[in-house]
Design a protein that fits this description.
heterodimer; A: mainly alpha; B: 545 residues; alpha/beta; 22 helices
Chain lengths: 272, 545
């Protein structure tokens, strides 16, 4: 762990904290998720660290459970969009010709429809379950990853070492995973940090609009929605999820920057 | 004695190196170099890459490229100290008292502007003369540099003239403000030999006529010997020795200079063709895309087992296309390749793994020919695994044997390409090709990106390996000295055709055809007055015809 810059340590600390809180929610949350424990919008006290929400539930508990849902959906959606987008993008670049053209144009077609509207339409006809949410978000986001991976891979694909692998008789799988992927990792890692945050914002937006995670399940966007009227009366309940989103965003990107620095090293990170 | 034009004393230049993923560190680029240059004299700076030649050249403009700092010593130009001069002073002298000619003219010109505008730009910017006068100067210079149609040459755009002409246009640009000093930074390195000689002659006559002083930077001792009065040999940012051209060429004192002069004098006895050729190329024609013209037309050559066939020619002659056809990357339009007695399928995807194994390739740029994310062990080990199914300890043992064969030894297996020097990288590429136990290796300009001494080592290694393993080489190069050192037979290529083909002793002996004669006589030789002699000879010949 030596030699990790302070910014990365800070990012790592908060990221781990959020993920641990998400995983261990049932054990660390002070109250039950939808348990009404006090009055409506009670201010912060030793009993309720962040106060209570619009129904008198403990806000900290709601935030912890909400983070669990939000982070889970965002992580799975990002994982899906990256594995799908990167593999398809690399394949398009490696196969080239009409395969590439068909895939790229289809991708452009999907990208030309605004993501949020597309998602709203799909979610209004489909039953809103976690699986459907993850699939919709992952597939929509994979178009962005596809574009990036294809652009990066097209450049790598013409390098002499890829040609050398082809002349050796290597199959496409070796070329994609052993020659191209390791060299495309840096831009992908940079994109990963960003995409994860977009996914969190996306699921929060959907929940805020009522098409994301359904009550009584908590999630950060939903908490904002439930407590938004409180802002008029000076109740900060709706702001806490925003604080959570901001701190997690910054932390994840600090970590991504550090990983990026490591992956850019061409000496196996030994000189760092 | 008049004051010298330029005096550099104890110059020290440092830079901070930001390697990705590493802590920044300071490095000494130039250490304690002193020189003087008098009016009208030409000083040649010579050394291998990283010797600091260009950095010293640019320091005469008190300029440091990309984060380079001039940290010590004095630079005196026309009696003024300029190392610590302010920006206004520097602006007034750059492009007026000192001008610069860059290596790659194609990259140095703005493609959107006509040549005349760019050639006269510095002159007009400094308000030296009126526009019409500057253009008259430029036309005069075009004439001195023997550019075609000097009156209208300036109306063209950079892409409308050839590389050699562009390089001469840049020389005109540098000479137009009538500077006291011109820095030539490898002006002919990117050119073909046949073009290089014209540019060299033009530069030399322009220097003589205008009486300007010059610093001529190059890695080619034979070239610098033609244009300079004095030569300074540099290595790792330090001066090795300095003296008149004659003294350096005829009586080099330092070991390093002696090595530079005797480079490429490998004695290679040619082997006679045996009964059956390993590879026969018959009547190959090939083109890129369905339309267009043939890049190769009707090429036939033979390569015998354990021998070397050199493909020689300038850029655009079709040498590398030939390699692409033989490797199957570009299936021929017509013609047939026979390898080891059997016809070889034209397209890569139709070839069997065994056919692929027999034919390996080494690239010009070892940097990009190896995956930067793989260790040397993976790079060399993969063909072993792929062709012979070697794994684990067996594979590691063979990797080490191969590393020994390329004279690298222990401790290299775990390194990444970025941790190797240029010569070591090329050696690893050779090991990767050898790992497949091929019958034939295509070497595409394998030494042209390397410094002369390192290139020499690679050539010797290739010859040793050939003697030991009996592998045949198809050696693609534009460098005649390399051909002399390694070839058994030679095919001279010109515009996609084989101009001359046969065993080395016949090809390199008269009577020559016109093109081979031009090519051979254009190769700079390391002796004084070579340029004048060749030009005189050519003039007489053309007068005789």
């Amino acid at each position: 762990m030596k030699g990790i810059p302070i910014s990365a340590l800070l990012g790592l600390f908060f990221t781990v904290l959020y993920f641990l809180a998400a995983i261990l929610a049932p054990w660390i949350a002070p109250y039950g998720m939808s348990e009404i424990v006090g009055d409506v919008w009670e201010p912060a006290s030793t009993q309720f660290w962040l106060g209570t929400d619009n129904l008198g539930r403990d806000l900290l508990t709601r935030l912890i459970y909400g983070g669990r849902n939000t982070i889970f959906v965002a992580t799975m959606a990002t994982a899906l969009s990256f594995s799908l987008g990167a593999i398809l993008g690399f394949s398009a670049a490696v196969y080239g010709g009409w395969v590439d053209q068909v895939m790229a144009r289809l991708n452009d077609l999907v990208m030309s429809i605004p993501t949020l509207i597309f998602a709203l339409v799909v979610l209004s006809v489909m039953p809103v379950t976690l699986t459907v949410l993850i699939l919709v978000m992952g597939l929509l986001d994979s178009t962005r990853v596809f574009r990036l991976s294809r652009a990066v891979a097209v450049d790598i694909n013409v390098m002499d070492y890829v040609e050398a692998a082809r002349l050796r008789g290597e199959g496409q799988r070796w070329v994609i995973f052993r020659e191209i992927l390791p060299n495309a990792l840096s831009p992908l890692v940079a994109e990963l940090g960003l995409r994860f945050i977009f996914a969190i914002l996306f699921i929060s937006t959907l929940s805020f609009l009522g098409l994301g995670i359904q009550p009584p399940e908590a999630d950060w966007g939903g908490i904002v929605k439930e407590n938004r009227e409180g802002i008029v009366y000076g109740i900060p309940a709706a702001l806490w999820p925003a604080v959570a989103i901001v701190t997690l965003s910054i932390s994840v990107n600090l970590v991504a920057d550090w990983v990026l620095n490591r992956t850019t090293s061409l000496k196996g990170g030994r000189g760092a | 004695m008049p004051d010298p034009l330029l005096t550099i004393n104890n110059l020290r230049i440092e830079a901070t190196i930001y390697a990705p993923g590493e802590k920044p560190r300071d490095a000494m680029i130039v250490d304690d170099v002193s020189l003087t240059l008098e009016k009208g004299k030409v000083l040649g700076l010579i050394g291998e890459s990283g010797a600091g030649k260009s950095t010293i050249g640019l320091s005469a403009l008190a300029y440091g490229r990309g984060g380079i700092r001039l940290t010590g010593g004095t630079i005196t130009l026309n009696g003024r100290e300029i190392r610590l001069a302010d920006a206004a002073t520097l602006r007034s002298l750059r492009g007026r008292e000192v001008t610069y000619v860059a290596q790659s003219a194609a990259a140095a010109f703005n493609p959107a502007k006509k040549l005349m505008e760019q050639v006269t730009e510095a002159t007009l910017h400094h308000g030296l003369v009126s526009k019409s006068e500057a253009e008259a100067r430029a036309v005069e210079l075009f004439r001195t540099l023997s550019l075609p149609d000097p009156e209208t040459f300036g109306d063209r755009y950079p892409h409308q003239v050839s590389g050699g002409q562009l390089q001469r246009a840049m020389t005109a640009m540098a000479l137009c403000p009538h500077p006291d000093l011109v820095i030539f930074d490898e002006p002919t390195t990117a050119l073909d030999v046949t073009t290089q000689i014209d540019v060299l002659a033009a530069i030399k006559s322009a220097i003589t006529r205008t009486g300007v002083a010059a610093m001529y930077i190059t890695h080619d001792l034979a070239v610098v010997a033609q244009v300079s009065d004095d030569i300074m040999v540099l290595r790792n940012g330090q001066m090795v020795e300095c003296g008149s051209v004659q003294r350096i060429i005829e009586d080099p004192r330092e070991e390093y200079t002696q090595a530079l002069i005797s480079v490429r004098r490998i004695d290679h006895k040619e082997k006679k063709p045996t009964d059956t050729p390993l590879m026969t190329v018959e009547n190959i024609s090939a083109r890129y895309g369905a339309m267009g013209v043939d890049v190769l037309s009707d090429v036939s050559v033979e390569l015998y087992p354990g021998q070397t066939l050199a493909l020689v020619g300038e850029s655009g002659s079709g040498k590398s296309t030939m390699a692409r056809v033989i490797t199957g990357l570009l299936p021929p339009r017509v013609g047939q390749i026979t390898f080891d007695g059997k016809p070889l399928p034209g397209a890569l995807k139709d070839r069997s793994r065994e056919e692929l194994r027999q034919l390996q390739m080494i690239y010009q740029m070892a940097d990009v020919a190896m995956n930067p994310r793989q260790t040397v062990a993976t790079i060399i080990g993969r063909p072993l695994e792929f062709y012979f199914g070697l794994r684990g300890r067996e594979r590691d043992k063979r990797v080490q044997e191969l590393l020994d064969a390329i004279e690298l030894g222990e401790g290299f297996a775990d390194r990444y390409p970025a941790e190797l020097s240029g010569g070591q990288k090329q050696r690893v590429c050779i090991a990767r090709a050898l790992a497949a136990k091929p019958k034939m290796i295509i070497c595409d300009e394998v030494t042209s990106a390397l410094d002369p001494l390192v290139a020499d080592g690679i050539l010797k290694l290739l010859l040793n390996l050939q003697a030991r393993e009996g592998v045949a080489y198809l050696f693609i190069t534009h460098d005649i000295a390399t051909v002399r050192a390694i070839a058994d037979s030679i095919a001279v290529m010109y515009q996609g055709k084989v101009q001359r083909y046969g065993v080395k002793s016949t090809v390199l002996a008269p009577p020559f055809d016109d093109y081979t004669d031009l090519l051979l006589s254009s190769v700079p030789e390391m002796e004084l007055g070579w340029l004048e002699r060749v030009l005189e000879h050519r003039k007489m010949e053309s007068a005789g015809n």
